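Researcher: Good morning. I'm working through a list of sequences from a screen, and I'd like to move beyond sequence-only analysis. For each chain I'm collecting a predicted structure so we can compare shapes side by side. This is the next one on the list. No need for commentary yet; just the structure.
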Amino acid sequence: MNGQTKLELTENLEDYLFDIFEILKEAPVVRIKDIAKRRGVKLSSVVVAVKSLAEKGLINYQKYEYITLTEKGLEIAQKIENRKKILYKFLREILKVSEQSAMRDVHKMEHDLSEETINRIIEFTRGFKNASS
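Model: Good morning. Structure tokens for this chain:
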């Protein structure tokens, strides 16, 4: 992900993009109502977010059509997923945080930590795994 895309993507839009990615893992297509149900928000809120993601070239969206990820959107969603997995692993396996706390905290951390800090956690987690093997 380049720096420009990161600056354009708010926490909320990043969450919407990741939700689309997650829904596509479970279902063959994504609809506005699927996202609204998953997030517990109104359809109009989803439409605003989806239009913004489409304008940024992260999803394909036409009114009354299914939503798909673009290659760029998929790449960013996979990076978000990887970041979440690493932070979760760090909390659970290294810090021994409870599953419930880890799941809640990962969401906060992924948005609030700098890219530099997340990268350091990734490096530390890799090093910790290698040292404990």
